[in-house]
Amino acid sequence: MSTRPTSNLFLYIGKQVKDEYGRQVGKIASFAVSPNGRVNGVFVEHGDGEFLRYTNDQFKVDGEEITLQPSVKMKVKSLCDEIPLIWRKDQALMDLSDKKKIPSELFGELHKNFEGALNQLKTDAQGTLESIDKQVTKCNSQLRELNSALINLEIEREIGRIDESAYQTALGMIQEGLRRINDERNDLESLKSQLSNLILGDAPSVQKELGKAPDSPPPLPEPPVVVHVKGTSKSGN
């Protein structure tokens, strides 16, 4: 969400916020604004009544639609920008040292600073990968549960315990949920691959730290069982 004068910012209060997959997140309740008018955060009231603060750059505004971007996606983007930049700076520093263009004592100090920053970014990246793994596991669990719900729905319809109207309503809800979770899991896998490739391709020392080889990517989770229902169309598309 771009920084605007306070008088305009508060026009967003009460506006509905969705995530990238169309799920309702909550409503904007207020903003954290510095004395100079800069937005430092956005407070959102979730459906359960909990208030959470998000960074303003997580929000995208398109007309009346306000979308909350996942924090993990913002983190991966930041790491993918910063790691190559620091690595290139350190390489340039070493090239200058080889050409005798900087004093050795200054090289040592600067190299140590770059190395420390790069190691911290690698640690952050590893923590982000672990967070992504947890979210992928959660998605897989949700997919299994929804597929179980779909199977049970079909059974209840087959034995006549649910009428067609209720069946179609429930079917649309479940299929839309499956679509959203599948989309989210695919995005997480893409983020994981992007970040893993960056780390593993950055330097041999990083591969040693992670104990992985660039030609041995982590295995993908087993795909969920998909139930095909005859005579129905996927809702929400």
Notes on the protein architecture:
The protein has 237 residues and is an alpha+beta fold. The protein folds into 2 domains: 6-69, SH3 type barrels; 72-210. 56% of the residues lie in helices and 14% in strands. A 6-stranded mixed beta sheet has the order 4-3-2-1-6-5, with no helix packed on it. β1 and β2 form a beta hairpin. α2 (71-98) packs parallel to α4 (164-202) and α3 packs antiparallel against α4. The longest helix has 55 residues, at 104-158. The radius of gyration is 24 Å and the shape is elongated. The model is unreliable at 3-7 and 202-237 (pLDDT under 50).
Tally of extended strands?
6
Distance from first to last alpha carbon: 27 Å
Kindly state the percentage of residues in helix.
Answer: 55-70%
- Strand proportion, as a percent range, falls in 5-15%
Low-pLDDT stretches: 3-7, 202-237
Radius of gyration: 24 Å
Q: What's the total helix number?
A: 5
SSE string, helices as H and strands as E: HEEEEEEHHHH
Rounded mean pLDDT is 84
